[in-house]
Amino acid sequence: MDRASMKTSSLLGMAVVLLALVLPGHALVCKKCASVRSTSCTGRTTPCPYGSACTVSYALIDGGDGPWPLYALSCGPKNKCGTKGSASMPGGGTVLMATSCCTTDNCIPDLPSLPVVSPAPNGLMCPSCVVSDADWCKPTKLMHCKGNENMCILEATRVTGAISMSSAVRGCATPNICELERHQHYNNETVGDFRISCKKASVSESTRQSM
After folding, report:
1. Which residue has the higher pLDDT, 189 or 30?
2. How many CA atoms lie within 13 A of 161 on its CB side?
3. CA-CA distance, 28 to 106, in Å (whole number)?
């Protein structure tokens, strides 16, 4: 697998975590579906927990081969409505994510606007690495963070069943992406385990010297 494919695989794993807002329960009913490289989807209706909203989660992923969207409809907690975040990976890979909500049965929320990330370094640095054959990677170099990305992230993906794969990526992220922590996804043939861990980014040596 070439480096661009490795990066795209790892970013896709992260995006699945970002879109994982489905919850069990009964109250409002919402559509549940997901699509890759599209900004719409069709699927079945699912009951939601009390206090939930119908949520659209939208991510734009760029692993170096051009940006492409990932779109999901689901039940989601109201306190996640309007969430926006970003993550940057080694070699220029990025994930932009946003959510929007509505609160009537089977409503389809408007497509949320994605955050605008400044390309300018923010003076912070994080360890970076990317692998496609393990769910952990040893940092190989430091990367400069940008915009509001002030956390260092490790995203680990492991899929078992009909399809087996694992990947890991380290880079920079905004704090709200770090709040996702862990999600497990099941279907008839595969089990996916997606984990995120974070720590605060460190001040780069050049920034420290200028203080």
Report:
1. 30
2. 11
3. 8
Tally of domains in the chain? 1
196 and 151 Cβ atoms separated by less than 8 Å:
no
Range of the structural domain that residue 51 is part of: 3-210
Q: Where are the beta strands (DSSP E) in the chain?
A: 29-36, 44-47, 52-62, 68-77, 84-88, 94-102, 121-131, 141-146, 151-161, 165-173, 182-186, 190-200, 202-203
Beta strands in 8-117 (DSSP E): 29-36, 44-47, 52-62, 68-77, 84-88, 94-102
pLDDT tens digits for 42-57? 888 989 988 899 999 8
User: Using CB atoms within 10 A of its CB, is residue 90 exposed (0-12), middle (13-18) or buried (19+)?
Assistant: buried
pLDDT at position 3 over 60:
no
List of residues 6+ apart from 205 with CB closer than 8 A: none
What confidence score (pLDDT) does residue 31 get? 93
Q: In a 10 Å sphere around its CB, with 0-12 CB exposed, 13-18 middle and 19+ buried, how is residue 118 labelled?
A: exposed
List Cβ neighbours of 67 (8 Å cut-off, separation of 6 or more): 60, 61
